[in-house]
């Protein structure tokens, strides 16, 4: 079995390398196509290509296509049927296997069982009762539901009980017919027979038959492992049961807060972890056969440390206990010390550490999988700026398959909400961490979910920490994503590993010369994060990264951007915040694809390019904490797609350009602009403005009359100022939040 797994992994790697080569070739074609249609600012290299390019390009493309074709034929001739980890089909059998149930073997859930029974009996006595049991994967939601399902007693009698184990192939027809079938086996009397035509389009008949059964009989139904991001499906599933079934009790086990919210008829039951004592008991029974077995005290001491690392998750305690059962000291020490994803790889297919997560993963649609997998580029425990994460997803074009449905920004919000709902991402309490982010929401990947991610992406995402002892090779295939910590140029092998990387992130890197030497190797990189690296001058070799969409050089000590950056015509996201630059170069205005520009905290920046308004695609501009900026260029109103503008703490700004007509602007932050004396009369033309912060604009004495014409304004903050508000302010019909604190407001 292990040999087959290794063979399949090698074949998958070979196919992946060929597909990467094809993707890189498509990037080349897209880039050269953009050069030929670019209206201005060609470099001499671009011009040379434009004149002699067709012959060279076609020859090069033909050669590369021929190479790719030969490699594909080779893979096909030696291939076996395989399923990539991104496959959307049915779950592998090892993740669907059902085990026999022994209630006595379930440890530490007696109180929870009584709680669930009590809630089901007391909630909605006169109507349908649906109780979601929700919690992160591995907590034992299914085991708890089994305890309740198998329980007896006078107050817990039903005409029939139905247990439905769900997978990613969710179907209302399957669920409904299963309920009808079980009722026919258990209940005497007139029960609807299963209609063969349900699957041919009889949803109303199916719902009618299910509801008739539930109306005439008392029943307990368990929908186990329900995971769906499709709200319409969940609503229809809930409606399948009806609303007036007095004796119907339904338990839904899920890791999704969205499922719990939509399906529940009352508050969910949030399942917590086991106590440390109970976790030790679970582990000991798997590892020793009995927690009271007489064993070497040394093994007991190691075992208790292993049980503590389970953090109350019974599935993990069982799996780690099975790993060390009848094994020697080396295995026990490895299970105590090594990362879980490495243990899963070492003990596959015997290990079941990630079985619950695997079920969720295979239930995700393709785009959400891609967004989920990308989270593995961040080191364990990283604090992740939500807005920054969405920008990185967009730079890598992970939403390409869903273009035209929603805006990319909205899709990013939807996917972060989905991952939060699935307990994969967690919101971090910002009062407990050092804030390095600008957005109001910071996230962290759940610890066990992170191990699962590292297991899934072990051949696609490279993590190298040069500050630690590097043991052995990190792998042979060229990686698609790479995070390099304390990077130093060790060998040419490192260059090969990242030669096809689409995203490269550097962390805590002092060796700027080594990074500069590596840049030309990253010829297919779309995302480059150098934030915090102590560069005093951006390397001229940056012009080699012609496919770059995202560049973060925040925190650099540079005073100017090199002219070579003008070649980066594919840039969409540029972060130069907290640098020492004194002026934005004019070539920035040629970045016609730029959507995000962040110059926050550039306290030496004095001038903005006069043609800044040429950035027609710009959606977000952050100029906050740039105290030497005194005015905005007259072309500013040319930013027709600008949605978010942050000018907070621009203490030198004394006026806004007139006319101030940013037709797409939704969020405007002017907090702390204490020299700003007035808002232009054209302010009322900001027809999509939703959020406006004027806190601390102490020189602002009144608002323009056109202010009351803002049709979409929902949130207004005018604290710490003396100001005359327009009359009548009630015209702002959509205003939901008005913050007037520490100020003398005249209405």
Describe the structure using short key phrases.
20 helices; Rossmann fold; 13-stranded parallel β-sheet; 5 domains; 5-stranded parallel β-sheet; 747 residues
Concise account of the structure shown:
With 747 residues, this protein is α/β, with parallel strands linked by helices. It has 20 helices and 23 strands.
Structure report:
The protein has 747 residues and is an alpha/beta fold. It has five domains: 2-77; 109-270, P-loop containing nucleotide triphosphate hydrolases (Rossmann fold, 3-Layer(aba) Sandwich); 276-355, no CATH class; 364-453, Arc Repressor Mutant, subunit A, CATH 1.10.10; 459-581, Alpha-Beta Horseshoe (Leucine-rich repeat, LRR (right-handed beta-alpha superhelix)). 34% of the residues lie in helices and 12% in strands. It is built from 20 helices and 23 strands. The strands form four sheets. It has a 13-stranded parallel beta sheet, covered by helices on one side. The protein has a five-stranded parallel beta sheet with strand order 2-3-4-1-5, with helices on both faces. Strand 11 (503-507), helix 20 and strand 12 (527-529) form a beta-alpha-beta unit. Mean pLDDT is 82; it is low at 47-57 and 76-100.
How are the SSEs placed, and which strands pair?
Elements: H1 2-36, H2 44-77, H3 110-122, E1 129-134, H4 141-150, E2 160-165, H5 172-186, H6 203-216, E3 219-224, H7 231-240, E4 248-254, H8 257-263, E5 269-270, H9 276-287, H10 297-308, H11 314-324, H12 329-337, H13 340-347, H14 355-363, H15 366-374, E6 384-385, H16 386-395, H17 408-421, E7 425-427, E8 442-445, H18 447-456, E9 461-465, E10 481-485, H19 492-497, E11 503-507, H20 512-518, E12 527-529, E13 550-552, E14 573-575, E15 596-598, E16 620-622, E17 644-646, E18 667-669, E19 691-693, E20 715-717, E21 722-724, E22 737-739, E23 744-746
Parallel strand pairs: 1-4, 1-5, 2-3, 3-4, 9-10, 10-11, 11-12, 12-13, 13-14, 14-15, 15-16, 16-17, 17-18, 18-19, 19-20, 20-22, 21-23
Antiparallel strand pairs: 6-8, 7-8
Helix pairs in contact: 1-2, 3-4, 5-6, 7-8, 9-10, 9-11, 10-12, 13-18, 16-17
């Amino acid at each position: 079995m292990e040999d087959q797994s290794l063979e399949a992994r090698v074949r998958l790697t070979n196919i992946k390398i060929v597909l990467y080569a094809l993707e890189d070739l498509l990037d080349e074609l897209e880039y050269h196509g953009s050069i030929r249609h670019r209206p201005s600012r060609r470099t001499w290299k671009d011009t040379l290509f434009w004149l002699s390019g067709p012959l060279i390009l076609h020859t090069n493309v033909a050669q590369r296509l021929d190479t790719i074709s030969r490699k594909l034929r080779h893979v096909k001739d030696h291939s076996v049927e395989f399923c990539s980890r991104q496959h959307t089909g049915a779950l592998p059998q090892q993740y669907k296997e059902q085990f026999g149930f022994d209630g006595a073997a379930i440890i530490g859930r007696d109180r929870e069982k009584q709680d669930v029974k009590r809630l089901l009996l007391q909630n909605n006595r006169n109507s349908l009762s649906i109780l979601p049991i929700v919690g992160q994967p591995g907590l034992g939601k299914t085991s708890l539901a089994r305890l309740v399902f198998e329980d007896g007693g006078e107050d817990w009698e039903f005409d029939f009980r139905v247990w439905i184990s769900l997978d990613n192939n969710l179907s209302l027809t399957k669920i409904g017919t299963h309920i009808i079938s079980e009722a026919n086996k258990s209940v005497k009397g007139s029960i609807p027979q299963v209609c063969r035509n349900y699957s041919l389009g009889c949803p109303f008949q199916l719902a009618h038959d299910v509801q008739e059964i539930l109306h005439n009989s008392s029943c307990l139904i368990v929908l186990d492992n329900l995971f769906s991001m499709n709200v319409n499906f969940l609503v229809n599933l809930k409606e399948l049961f009806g609303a007036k079934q007095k004796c119907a009790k339904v338990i839904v086990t899920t890791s999704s807060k969205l499922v719990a919210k939509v399906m529940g008829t009352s508050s969910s039951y949030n399942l917590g972890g086991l106590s440390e004592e109970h976790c030790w008991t679970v582990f000991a029974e798997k590892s020793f056969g009995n927690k009271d077995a007489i064993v070497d005290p040394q093994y007991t001491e190691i075992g208790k440390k292993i049980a503590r690392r389970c953090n109350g998750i019974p599935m993990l305690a069982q799996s780690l206990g099975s790993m060390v059962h009848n094994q020697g000291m080396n295995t026990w020490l490895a299970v105590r010390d090594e990362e879980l994803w490495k243990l899963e790889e070492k003990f596959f297919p015997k290990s079941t550490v990630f079985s619950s997560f695997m079920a969720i993963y295979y239930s995700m649609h393709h785009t959400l999988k891609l967004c989920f997998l990308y989270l593995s580029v961040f080191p364990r425990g990283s604090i992740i700026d939500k807005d920054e994460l969405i920008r990185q997803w967009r730079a890598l074009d992970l939403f390409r398959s869903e273009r035209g449905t929603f805006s990319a920004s909205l899709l990013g919000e939807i996917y972060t909400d989905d991952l939060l709902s699935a307990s994969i991402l967690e919101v971090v309490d910002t009062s407990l961490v050092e804030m390095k982010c600008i957005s109001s929401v910071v996230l962290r990947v759940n610890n066990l979910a992170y191990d699962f991610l590292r297991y899934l992406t072990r051949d696609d995402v490279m993590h190298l920490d040069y500050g630690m002892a590097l043991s052995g090779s990190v792998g042979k295939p060229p990686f698609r994503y790479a995070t390099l910590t304390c990077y130093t140029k060790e060998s040419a092998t490192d260059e090969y590993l990242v030669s096809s990387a689409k995203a490269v992130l550097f962390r805590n890197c002092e060796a700027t010369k080594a990074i500069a030497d590596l840049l030309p190797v990253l010829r297919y990189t779309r995302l480059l994060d150098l934030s915090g690296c102590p560069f005093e001058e951006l390397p001229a070799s940056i012009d080699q990264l012609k496919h770059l969409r995202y560049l973060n050089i925040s925190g650099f000590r540079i005073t100017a951007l090199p002219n070579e950056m003008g070649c980066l015509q594919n840039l969409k996201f540029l972060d130069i915040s907290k640098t020492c630059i004194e002026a934005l170069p004019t070539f920035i205005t040629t970045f016609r694809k730029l959507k995000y520009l962040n110059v926050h905290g550039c306290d030496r920046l004095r001038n903005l390019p006069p043609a800044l308004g040429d950035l027609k695609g710009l959606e977000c501009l952050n100029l906050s904490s740039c105290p030497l900026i005194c005015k905005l260029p007259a072309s500013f109103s040319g930013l027709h797609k600008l949605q978010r503008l942050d000018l907070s703490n621009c203490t030198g700004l004394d006026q806004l350009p007139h006319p101030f007509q940013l037709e797409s602007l939704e969020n405007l932050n002017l907090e702390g602009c204490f020299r700003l004396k007035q808002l232009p009369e054209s302010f009322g033309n900001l027809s999509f403005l939703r959020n406006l912060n004027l806190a601390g604009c102490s020189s602002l004495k009144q608002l323009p009359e056109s202010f009351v014409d803002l049709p979409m304004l929902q949130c207004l903050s005018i604290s710490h100022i003396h100001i005359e508000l327009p009359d009548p302010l009630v015209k702002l019909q959509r205003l939901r939040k008005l913050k007037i604190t520490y100020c003398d407001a005249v209405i």
